[in-house]
Amino acid sequence: MSSTATTPPRERTVGRTCPLCEATCGLRITLREDEAGERVIKVAGDPQDVFSQGFICPKGAALGALQHDPDRLSRPRVREGETWREVDWDEAFAFIEARLRPILADGDRNALAAYVGNPNVHNLSGMIYGPALLRALGTRNIFSASTVDQMPRHVASGWMYGNPDRIPVPDVDRTRLLIIFGANPAVSNGSLATAPDWPGRIKAVRARGGRVVVFDPRRTATAKLADTQHAIRPGTDAALMLAMAHVIFAEGRVDPGRIAPHIRGGLLTLSAIGDAIDAFTPDAIGPICGIAPDAIRALALELAETEKAVVYGRIGTQATRFGTLASWTVDLLNLITGHLDAEGGAMFPEALHERPARGKGRGFRTGRHRGRVAGDPEVRGEMPAVRLAAEITTPGEGQIRALFTVAGNPVLSVPDGDTLDAALEQLELMVCIDPYLNETTRRADVILPPPPPLQRPHYDLAFYTLSLRNVARFSPAILPHDGPSECDILARLTLMVLGMGSHGDPALVEQQIVGHILGRICQDPAHALHGRDPRALAAELWGTRGVERALDALIRTGPRGDAFGENPDGWTLAKLAATPGGVDFGPLEPRLPQALATPDGSIDAFPDAIRDDIPRLKAWLADAPDGLLLIGRRHLRSNNSWMHNLPKLVRGQQRFTLRIHPADAAARGIADGEPVVLSAREAGSARVDAIAQVTDEVMRGVVSLPHGWGHAIEGSGLSVASKVGGPNVNRVTRPVVDPLSGNAALNGVPVEVTAVLASVDSR
């Protein structure tokens, strides 16, 4: 009798930063190799990660399912009528060039457009190479998910501090009073405030004797962890915070602390703010917001009297008609109480890769051009995403004829998505860099799939600038990829729109990106590398991939970098890559005035555009809408529209119900679990079907439906998500924007909710 020995499968475990949300948690990924190659068999939290220390959420645990999703595209696809044909990469780029050539020949660069989606910010390749493509397009028609999310925060920071990315974050780990407006970090894992384990951090505030206060129309997971929740009327956050500021001015409690000498105009500016908000008394504003005036007074004084305290606001305040005003008001409260740039307050991270701050800069402005159709001002090089459909369908010079999307699904993510869906069919060329055939890419002419997440390097270029501690971790690719990298895809498109054909060498774009990074540093008189030769420095960079070499250039010229030997103890990408679990540079430290980039090196505490917008808020409050108002909501197992094709993240209880207060449901004859129709009050034809969930979790007069669902659309290749379906809330949200930022007003939307039978009877 004989036997045949079998070789057991080889396994290995590697560390990596999770790329699926803003928390930047460390993961331990176990892979097993068999005849088909290596596959992920387990994902766990990494106890060696200096920031997350083993914390993991359901999204991180599903990374293997995302990596191996059978619906992911691995080769380009070209649309031929109603069918798709899989092609090789050269044929795909040749197809794009043939379609693009006559559009470029007409000479109107504004006929080109781009839409950049939320996943791009989690992607090192997209963050470094994406801007090169946008610059090469040479168009005013740039759109992104920022204007359905956070653009007000960027604008407020740009005006106040001179840099739209200089965003103060709450120093949660040292605060004694945390006041949260319109944010649910226990579920979002932090948003514009990067940190793992927000639930644990909130509990720690209370454990050390501090307090947590939440303002939200819904009793969220964060509110359940807090000491106090105030149910606030959607859209009134800016007014409520101005009422708190009014109390602080009226009680003579204004004290900016150590930053007082750096406020432009000093006491005169602060006095002007006090005069401008004189009408925002707690007695006048409280009834409109649904908050008792005495509660407003007490909390305002508590904020002023607590040594370590901070106000933090997020999407519930920003995705409104007054998002920029609300973002400024968050900073105003922190500034006038001495909690801006102070321990336990709102502080400015210093990322390993960022350009060293100089205390002065060019400043920030908007409106360098205006939209062709609606006249919206340009903001940060972008136009409002809600205008994309009109810019495609409206004839005339500058009409969009070709659209490039990068990791975006605006048909689901942008208000009035049905109109955009129809508009996309009019394009002469649509190219999508995306791993899926989804609700938007199904309209494309060509889909170019990037590598899966474990086949590309990772470093959180954006989120380390928003981190609650100064940390960094680099994750190299841990699986091989036999196709072009995402850098190569973006580079070839960049060269193509520059007229260099479909076979351009991606190395040319790498040279341009690295040359730009090093060139500006070598021209900076204050930098240790001033006067050095950028080409000689480029020859010393670490890494084989263009994106790694660019990141090495950023780190080595950054505030803690080795400056190519000028600071021998400084950091390089090679040194970071050799540091298991990343590196923790410690808690945040005061950075003003050095972190300012305004022309005069001072804080513009009362920007002209903010001053001019206060009367608009006053007028709206005098005639604020009554009836039902719609808000969104987040879920721990979801991230906008891009994780609904993973079975382990969509199984279980339905998460896209329409939540409605029992009194509002009873008044409309709506029972729990029954179908209802949600319609926009300002446009009665816009409607969506949903299932009612009757709960006192939402305040009376408010209904809640999450964003990102609606996958049951013909032509989508998302087999799991299509079966799950769900209502697309953006059939109801309208293209209404905050005029200062162009951000869509997604919260506080006036709506009607009707039982299905009642809706049918009324037709």
Give a topology summary.
Blueprint: E1 10-17, E2 26-34, E3 37-45, H1 58-61, H2 63-67, E4 77-80, E5 83-86, H3 89-105, E6 112-116, H4 124-137, E7 142-144, H5 151-161, E8 169-170, E9 177-181, H6 185-188, H7 198-207, E10 211-215, H8 221-225, E11 228-230, H9 237-250, H10 266-276, H11 282-289, H12 293-305, E12 309-313, H13 315-318, H14 323-336, E13 346-347, H15 388-393, E14 402-406, H16 410-413, H17 417-424, E15 429-433, E16 446-448, E17 469-472, H18 486-497, H19 506-522, H20 534-538, H21 546-556, H22 573-577, E18 583-587, H23 608-622, E19 628-631, H24 647-650, E20 658-660, H25 662-667, E21 675-680, E22 683-694, E23 702-704, H26 719-724, E24 749-755, H27 756-761
Parallel strand pairs: 6-7, 6-14, 9-10, 9-12, 10-11, 14-15, 15-16, 19-23, 20-22
Antiparallel strand pairs: 1-2, 2-3, 4-5, 4-16, 8-13, 17-18, 19-24, 20-23, 21-22, 21-24
Helix pairs in contact: 3-18, 4-18, 5-14, 9-11, 9-12, 9-14, 11-12, 18-19, 19-21
